[in-house]
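Shipment paperwork, digital attachment
Item: protein structure file
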Amino acid sequence: MTPPRPRPGSLFEERFAVAGEGDAPGAGDDAGDGDGVSKSQDSLPEGNETAEVATAAPATQPAAEPQPAIAPTPPAITPVQPAITPVQPAPAPPASEAWPATVAAAPSVVAQDGAAGEPLLEIEDLHVTFRQRRRSTYAVDGLSLRVDSGRILAIIGESGSGKTVTARAVMGLLPKGSARVAGSIRFAGREMLGAKERHMRRFRGREVAMVFQNPERSLNPTMRIGTQVTEALRKHLHLGRSEAHEKCVELFRQVRMPAPERRFYEYPHQLSGGMRQRVMIAIALACEPKLLIADEATTALDVTTQAQIMDLLLELQESLGMALVMISHDLGLAASYAEDVVVMYAGRAVE
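Attachment content:
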């Protein structure tokens, strides 16, 4: 059914005339090319495009915001530099404070050195002369030396240089009739030269002990080993028979004597040279003296036994805290074990 055509001059035609469209709206629809839709879209007011642009413009503004985001990065690095800067002036204050600390510590060090430097044994201008008939022999001629507490002193020299005579003068064992001793021998600040015999008996063994050169001559061949050791214990420490026996066995263990309880009842000829020397060391250490004099204690022993005896002496010296004087003619022995060395020649200290 065909729709009625509008009358000429009607309001419909006037509307299209004003819009510039001469055809009816149905003509566009019959064509089917969608011009009506495209025209309606193209005929959108320009304000819409302006709105799209307006909406897009704000999108470009946040793009400029990353630049301020980079700006805070330098302040983040800047605080690291001040953290490193205080490290540089830090060494300056300790350097300035170190001087007062060192000055304050100096008196204590001096006090310790003064206490440690006080000699345990001091010999000054010692002269020992042996007179026989009309002839005089000067065994020691003006010797001076000192031994500090806990130190190891080696007196070395050739045979006849006066080493053993010096040790016997300290012990007071020189013959009274033929030996003349002059000078000064002070032990712990006390003058020992010229002391009475009863004082020297208390002095020997308790304060100073000596390991002699030849144990075969030092030990009594008619007495058992245990009896010779307990004699010193009962004399100086006033121990009973059973207590002295236990102490003797303990000393044998201390000097590494094999089968110590069986050795107590044996005689000197039943022991080897090294074992006899260990017995002499046990007798010397019975009363724990402050000074031990070892007069060529390893001369008559083989090399292996010498090393064992020296290691034993050093171990005992360190454990008991006593001073040790080694008398020897072996320079290698003195260089290996001694802390101080005195070289004697013709009764004098030459080095």
